């Protein structure tokens, strides 16, 4: 009887005691919390990437590689994780913008920071290039194609946005507001080109404006300007090294999220940052700290990001070997205007 009583006691103890949950180590938790990965494509140079989804593929477009004749690079992925450069049938690397318009200084075009959007059955590319009127400054142009990878054909012999007296313009990015049906381009006034020196040309006071602008365009073509541009963010001086750039705008719930980079892209101070507003025109309030900065999971100088319209899929670059700016990706989450990755 004593043995049976003891056995019954142990059975009752097991039933009433909770089963312990396995603990997640700090290393495992960091893998759950952080979502960025890279460098992708073997660490090839792929700066200032933009992202677009078409069919069952993701596509990315990027700044030219110095020393290359390619004006705009293209990469693709079927799963957002494994990326590869796109090549032509003859084995040469694909150039999405092979022919440049007359407003571009063809001797040194410096084609930068493309962005591609889809409007019905057509694709529109915004790009920055050196102005033939002033080779020290960039302007923004547009080109169209019927295939997502191009070739893209410039829409005009003139630049789309070209405020040379303010330093020119770069980093155009398209945004469609589904709530209102309005379409916009965000871009940066390139005050660096007329700054007073230092990091990326604008790290010496008095700091020149590098304002991020919001320009409404026709919802039907994405290139016909509607009214005047308005300023939605600017650098705050020394803490930004006089620079904010690379805007990418999305909406989540009642919040507009403006992703941007601050600091000089050649230095460790470069960041992926964001600001929020309840109106597309602002005012925008900066997050308390960057989303990605040097030291975040081993990253160096992350920036030049683009976020897909779903508000989740992000591409950006970060420094790899030497001066290479390699491709990285991340899945971000937006909750009540707070972004995590």
From TrEMBL:
Concerning its family, UniProt says: Belongs to the glycosyl hydrolase 43 family.
The answer, when asked if Chaperone is one of the entry's keywords, is no
Q: List the InterPro entries hit by this protein, alphabetically.
A: Glyco_hydro_43, Glyco_hydro_beta-prop_sf, Glycosyl_Hydrlase_43
Query: Which residues, if any, are the signal sequence?
Result: 1-16
Molecular functions (GO terms) = hydrolase activity, hydrolyzing O-glycosyl compounds
Q: Entry's SUPFAM superfamilies?
A: Arabinanase/levansucrase/invertase
List UniProt keywords, sorted A-Z.
Glycosidase, Hydrolase, Signal
Q: Which residues are named in the active-site annotation?
A: 48 (proton acceptor), 245 (proton donor)
Q: Tell me, what's a Pfam family for it? A: Glyco_hydro_43
Q: Which domain of life is it from?
A: Eukaryota
Q: What is this protein called?
A: Uncharacterized protein
One GO BP: carbohydrate metabolic process
Important for catalytic activity, responsible for pKa modulation of the active site Glu and correct orientation of both the proton donor and substrate (site feature) positions: 171
């Amino acid at each position: 009887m004593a043995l049976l009583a003891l056995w019954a006691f142990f059975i009752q103890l097991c039933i009433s005691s909770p089963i312990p949950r396995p603990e997640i180590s700090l290393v495992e938790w960091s893998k759950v919390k952080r979502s960025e990965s890279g460098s992708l494509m073997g660490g090839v140079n792929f700066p200032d990437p933009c992202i677009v989804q078409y069919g069952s593929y993701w596509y990315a477009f990027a700044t030219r590689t110095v020393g290359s004749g390619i004006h705009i690079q293209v990469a693709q992925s079927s799963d957002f994780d494994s990326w590869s450069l796109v090549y032509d049938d003859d084995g040469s690397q694909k150039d999405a913008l092979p022919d440049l318009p007359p407003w571009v200084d063809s001797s040194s075009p410096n084609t930068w920071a493309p962005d591609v959007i889809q409007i019905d059955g057509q694709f529109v590319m915004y790009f920055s290039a050196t102005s033939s009127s002033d080779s020290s400054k960039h302007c923004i142009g547009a080109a169209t194609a019927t295939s997502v990878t191009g070739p893209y054909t410039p829409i005009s012999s003139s630049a789309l946005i070209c405020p040379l007296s303010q330093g020119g313009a770069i980093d155009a990015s398209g945004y469609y507001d589904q709530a209102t049906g309005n379409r916009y381009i965000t871009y940066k006034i390139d005050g660096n080109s007329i700054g007073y020196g230092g990091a990326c040309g604008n790290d010496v006071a008095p700091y020149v404006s590098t304002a991020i602008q919001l320009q409404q365009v026709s919802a039907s073509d994405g290139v016909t300007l509607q009214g005047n541009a308005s300023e939605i963010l600017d650098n705050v001086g020394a803490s930004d090294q006089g620079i904010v750039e690379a805007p990418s705008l999305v909406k989540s719930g009642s919040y507009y999220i403006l992703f941007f980079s601050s600091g000089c892209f050649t230095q460790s101070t470069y960041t992926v940052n964001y600001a929020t507003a309840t109106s597309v025109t602002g005012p925008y309030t900066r997050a308390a700290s960057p989303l990605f900065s040097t030291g975040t999971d081993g990253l160096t100088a992350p920036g030049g990001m683009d976020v897909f319209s779903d508000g989740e899929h992000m591409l950006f670059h970060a420094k790899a070997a030497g001066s290479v700016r390699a491709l990285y990706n991340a899945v971000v989450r937006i909750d009540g205007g707070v972004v995590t990755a």
